[in-house]
Design goal:
two-stranded antiparallel ribbon, globular, 176 residues, 9 strands
């Protein structure tokens, strides 16, 4: 993948901001005419590969293992949107041979896209194996809409076409 540069100073353009972002879920009906989940308030996603260490009797690392990979996400969105997403996941979960609840089904790939006309290219991140592990309601008095946090477990996070590790042996599992 070629390195793309931003033409600084960026006089007649914009860097990515939250209005450059689109979040899409397969089967989720987008609100016309825009598409995506427009009312999402925040999303955080991360991945890490924690290698094992072999030291023997040495105080320093002699070798490493490939390690344990983990990927997670957290979303904050209005209660009505969180309920709609839980309903959609429940519908997908009911369609598999052994019915699954909304906290069990994890076969979705969610797409996060970032676009600005002044930027070199569209950026697309894929959250593979999206499975909600926790829904948290924490409401309080006031004029703000009721929000819900979704904690999510992921199989893998593909950052703009870049894999965190060699997925060759997992290609069939993930449909890649």
């Amino acid at each position: 993948m070629a390195i793309q540069t931003v033409p600084y100073p960026l006089i007649n353009g914009n860097l990515f901001d939250f209005s450059s972002f689109e979040f899409s879920i397969p089967g989720y009906p987008p609100p016309p005419p825009y598409g995506g989940v427009l009312s999402i308030q925040s999303i955080d996603y991360s991945d890490n590969l924690e290698p094992g260490e072999m030291r023997g009797a040495a105080p320093h690392v002699l070798a490493r293992t490939r390690g344990k990979y983990a990927a997670t996400a957290k979303l904050t969105l209005p209660k009505v949107e969180a309920d709609n997403i839980a309903d959609l996941i429940q519908t997908f979960g009911a369609a598999v041979p052994r019915a699954m609840g909304y906290l069990e089904f994890g076969a979705l790939t969610i797409t996060c896209s970032y676009y600005e006309p002044s930027m070199p290219a569209l950026v697309v991140d894929q959250l593979v194996g999206f499975r909600v592990t926790k829904m948290s309601d924490a409401h309080k008095t006031g004029q703000e809409p009721l929000m819900v946090d979704l904690d999510v477990s992921l199989f893998m996070l593909i950052r703009n076409g870049r894999y965190p590790f060699d997925p060759g042996n997992l290609a069939a599992s993930f449909g890649l």
